[in-house]
Design brief:
The strands form 3 sheets. This protein has a two-stranded parallel sheet. A two-stranded parallel sheet has the order 2-5. By secondary structure, it is mainly α. Helix content is 49%, strand content 10%. The longest helix has 18 residues. Helix 2 crosses helix 4, helix 4 runs parallel beside helix 9 and helix 5 runs antiparallel to helix 6. The protein has a single domain, classed as NAD(P)-binding Rossmann-like Domain (Rossmann fold, 3-Layer(aba) Sandwich). It is built from 9 helices and 6 strands; from the N terminus they run αβαββαβαβαααβαα.
Amino acid sequence: MDMKLCTEKYLAQIGVPFTVFRLCGFMQALISQYAVPILEEESVWGTNDETKTAYLDSQDVARMALASLRTEEPVGKTITLAGPGAYTIKEVIALCEKKSNQTAQVTKVPLLALKVLQTVTAFFQWSRDASDRLSFANVLSNSETFTAPMADTYKMLGLDPAETTTLDSYLDDFYGRILKKLKEVGGQSRQKDFYL
């Protein structure tokens, strides 16, 4: 996030026409972190924080970015893109359980443990990538809601908010396709060796 902020500031300083998009979170990341592991009866990581994120489908983000090229209004602006609803990790896991008709094996990780692990891994060159990935613990500890009002953004981009994918419909589509494919191949939803 710091690197992106520095890049944003640099673009503003050098006078190049720009539009900056800030995203709350991608729905696609939830598939590998929660949807597939729950389907395969693997453990998923959870925390007790109340941080909420308004996830967006990457296709909707692409549509919004392309729409910004059709008008001059977004030039020189920073636009935060947010999905139609904000969810905690607990709510995401509950949605995946409902859609897959399975119970998640949730391994609760205290935020303090994530922060300590992030600090320890930052000391070693070979584990700095892991440290960077664990830095989200600092974000989670604030129990904030990562969303933004989108009415003006939709108006500026000439888009219909009703066309933006909700997390509920995104997971319906994902699990619908996966479970249909499993039936076609004679598998079960708990099959461990099924991969896309």
